[in-house]
Amino acid sequence: MxxxxxxxxxxxxxxxxxxxxxxxxxxxxxxxxxxxxxxVGSTKLTHxxxxxxxxxxxxxxxxxxxxxRQGYRGRFVVYLPPLLEALGLVELTHxxxxxxxxxx
Length: 104
What we know:
104 residues, alpha+beta, 4-stranded antiparallel sheet, 3-stranded antiparallel sheet
């Protein structure tokens, strides 16, 4: 379960789907376009804030669970699903590996 309100001063504190790593994320509306800022250790990842709405819409259209990719190139889909779950937009499995996500 996430804590925080998603602002820079009170970021969401999340865990990866397997629960093995903790990270924080917040929305920065002062940028153009607004961004999601993900802090994992000393690494800062940024994504367009629409990254919340567009994957949710794609998952709803798909209608079934989709695998969550892993690895360096899949960082976006490793860190975004727990946020979508915290926002009540998806169901996420929390297995040690091969987690799946589905829109609700």
